[in-house]
């Protein structure tokens, strides 16, 4: 019978930060898309906020005058 032993060198272990080959991680590849999506979601949320604000303001003025 032969006994097999395997050793893992510390240089052969790949950390998650080195998986895409960049020393600082993969953020540089997705930064532009994340920034674009963040602005789009932010403006959409602001538009909904203004829509609701003005409708609530009109509704409050309407019910106060009743």
Describe it.
- The chain is mostly helical.
- It has one domain.
- It is built from 1 helix and no strands.
- The longest helix has 39 residues.
- The termini are far apart.
- 0% of the residues are buried.
- The mean pLDDT is 79.
In short:
It contains one helix and no strands.
Taken as a percent bin, the fraction of beta residues is: under 5%
Number of separate strands: 0
End-to-end span in angstroms?
Answer: 95 Å
Number of DSSP helices? 1
Q: What is the count of distinct domains?
A: 1
Q: What's the mean pLDDT score?
A: 79
C-alpha geometry: rod-shaped
Determine the oligomeric state from the structure. Answer: single chain
Keywords: Membrane, Transmembrane, Transmembrane helix
Per-chain topology:
Elements: H1 27-65
Which key phrases capture this entry?
0% strand, membrane, transmembrane helix, transmembrane, single chain, 66 residues, mainly alpha
């Amino acid at each position: 019978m032969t006994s097999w032993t395997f050793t893992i060198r510390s240089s052969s272990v790949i950390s998650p930060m080195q998986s895409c080959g960049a020393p600082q991680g993969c953020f540089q590849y997705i930064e532009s898309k994340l920034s674009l999506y963040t602005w789009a979601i932010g403006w959409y949320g602001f538009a909904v906020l203004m829509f609701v604000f003005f409708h609530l303001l009109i509704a409050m003025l309407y019910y106060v005058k009743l």
